[in-house]
Design a protein that fits this description.
The complex is a heterodimer of chains A (308) and B (296). In chain A, 79% of the residues lie in helices and 0% in strands. Chain A has 308 residues and is an all-alpha fold. The relative contact order of chain B is 0.14. The chains are: A mainly alpha (308), B mainly alpha (296).
């Protein structure tokens, strides 16, 4: 178990190192002169531009710049934003991360709370109306782009009915639309998988044994079926993390949610290289960490995995 | 064995193969959802190919008197913020969606099959390096990667196809690798290697054809995802550049005029949903037909 954990952490570390190298290389080849992008429309002389380039080490070679970025990272220094001069990236990211964490966690919890029971019910009552509705719903849920649902929700609930704020994160009512919209795709994916795995588990011998010894139906469901059917769902959550974070980039832009996705998009459009690098690294860290955690949870819950 | 016996055993072999295919085909044809999906995709391809003849208006012709006009008989989906006919733009937008969806998936599948087959077949340090490459790619939230690459290469149709193609292959490579790992030790592969077949021949002739089933399923299910990501990229202004009609940029127009002309955003969203749904239905049908174990 411990050696498995260590192996996974080492692999994760290697992946993150490759992520830093890859991200840095891509950003290095971003077209245009970063110094000129920084000053925008302001009239500056070539000498002033040169001063900026020197200040940001833009004249250094590829490896030198990569090394200084990496060694600063190692000390926990993410640098300062080029576009919002003097503002430490750490501060910018900190508040945005909190907003995104709230959004993704709430969406994940809501989608699990709804999708798991519905998936189990649909599997136990196959070909019932509930089964058809949930299958149809999850098919639609993955097909409809969630940011479009977001736009439509703003048109309906904010513009037409005036019930909910169309953007921002000022009150609890502002959370409702972005969280629900973000949870739809996860709900669809989890529901579909939960239904499938439950059907599979229901056909297993140990379920038949439990039935034969006269165990109550609900006890069979909670003690045997759901526990085993949940295993693949746990893997799915880890795997979906990258998708949820992708989703937040669009959804946060639609709802002007002051989170990481919005910050990332602004940084990309403003060519704020340092901020883009920092956020990409943070997002991939989250994905890698989530994958390790789900692997570990899987090993804890299912002893068969540990043997491998 | 007499000559006749050989001929008859060959015949038997052929009919066996044929019936296997037929059985798969029958399973697929019985899948109502898959047939509906094929029907929709065929319809969309027809629309995309004939858009310049069947579209009622020029998709880029502005008409300032019809700015944000609501749907009428003459303009069933209404007009956008600068008076262009939305139905015509939807028809031309089908070109971009299908072109990116199908071409990018093909690129991604080709890279994925190549990388996955090499990792699984050669094992050792080749596998280690390629597997870490796959891990690295899968650690990126895909939209963050697409946006970054698009910012570097510049948004255009060609670049979108390339960017999506080179970022989506990791999951195929992973599936193929696992598949190849189990095929590598099969008797017929060992036999081929023992009789002196080159690595290239073993991979291309014996391993890839037998591992391709799961990839076809994955790929058909992925076209929809690719179309959604392309539309999101265009929606954020980093994909297909204006004025080329694409569903994502149309949605972005719709969002900008959400208060005054909310109808602009309706049609492109429905078009994306219908297209993705159709490809997903085909994918589900293929999975049920090709992989009976997965049938629900």
């Amino acid at each position: 178990m411990i050696s498995y954990l260590i192996k996974r952490i080492l692999q994760g570390g290697l992946v993150l190192f490759m992520v830093t190298f890859f991200t840095f290389t891509v950003m290095y080849f971003m077209p245009g002169d970063p110094a000129r992008t920084m000053v925008g429309q302001a009239r500056v002389t070539e000498a002033q531009l040169e001063l900026i380039r020197n200040k940001w080490n833009l004249n250094d070679g590829f490896l030198e710049r990569y090394w200084s970025w990496i060694s600063n990272l190692a000390t926990g220094d993410l640098g300062t934003s080029m576009m919002r001069p003097g503002q430490p990236i750490k501060d910018m990211i900190q508040s945005a991360s909190w907003m995104t964490l709230q959004l993704t966690t709430l969406a994940m919890v809501i989608s699990l709370l709804i999708a798991v029971p519905v998936g189990v019910l649909a599997a136990t009552k196959r070909n019932s109306i509930l089964d058809y509705i949930s299958t149809f719903g999850s098919t639609l849920g993955v097909a409809i782009p969630n940011y479009w649902i977001g736009i439509m929700a703003i048109v309906f609930f904010s513009v037409n009915l005036g019930w909910l704020p169309p953007y921002g994160a000022d009150s609890w009512r502002a959370y409702i639309l972005p969280v629900l919209v973000l949870s739809i795709e996860e709900m669809a994916a989890v529901m579909r998988l939960m239904r499938g795995t439950t059907i599979e588990v229901l056909g297993q011998d140990y379920v038949k044994t439990a039935e034969a010894k006269g165990l109550h139906r609900n006890a069979i469901l909670t003690r045997h079926v759901v526990r085993n059917a949940l295993l693949p769902v746990i893997t799915l959550i880890g795997y979906r993390m990258a998708f949820i974070l992708s989703g937040t980039i669009v959804i946060e832009t639609v709802f002007s949610w002051p989170g990481l996705g919005q910050l990332f998009f602004d940084a990309i459009t403003n060519k704020d290289l340092q901020v883009v690098q920092a956020i990409v690294l943070l997002l991939t860290c989250i994905v890698v960490l989530m994958n390790i955690i789900t692997d570990m949870m899987y090993a804890v819950i299912d002893p068969r995995v540990r043997v491998r | 064995m007499s000559e006749q016996a050989i001929v008859s055993s060959r015949l038997e072999h052929q009919t066996e193969r044929l019936s296997q295919r037929q059985r798969t085909w029958r399973r697929f044809a019985k899948h109502k959802g898959a047939l509906l999906g094929i029907f929709i995709v065929a319809f969309l391809i027809l629309v995309a190919l004939t858009a310049q003849w069947i579209a009622p208006y020029d998709p880029n012709k502005t008409n300032l008197r019809l700015r944000g006009a609501s749907p009428t008989m003459a303009h069933p989906f209404g007009n956008d913020d600068i008076g262009r006919d939305i139905l015509s733009r939807i028809m031309f937008g089908a070109r971009v969606a299908l072109l990116v969806g199908i071409t990018s998936t093909t690129i991604a599948v080709s890279i994925g099959v190549m990388v996955g087959a090499m990792a699984g077949y050669f094992g050792g340090w080749v596998d280690f390096v390629l597997s870490r490459l796959i891990d690295t790619l899968m650690a990126f939230p895909i939209l963050a990667l697409l946006l970054t690459l698009s910012a570097v290469l510049g948004p255009s149709l060609r670049n979108v196809i390339i960017i999506v193609g080179v970022t989506f292959w990791a999951s195929y490579a992973r599936v193929i690798r696992a598949e190849v790992l189990s095929l590598r030790e099969r008797d017929y592969v060992l036999a081929a290697r023992a009789s002196g077949a080159s690595d290239k021949r073993v991979i291309l002739q014996h391993i890839v054809p037998n591992a391709i089933g799961p990839v076809i399923i994955l790929a058909s299910l992925a076209v929809g995802g690719v179309i959604i990501f392309e539309s999101a990229l265009s929606f954020l202004g980093m994909g297909i550049s204006r004025p080329t009609p694409s569903w994502g940029t149309m949605l972005s127009d719709g969002r900008d005029h959400i208060r005054n002309y909310p109808h602009i955003a309706i049609a492109p969203g429905l078009a994306i949903a219908l297209t993705v749904l159709a490809f997903n239905l085909i994918g589900d049908g293929l999975r049920d037909a090709l992989d009976p174990r997965e049938r629900s």
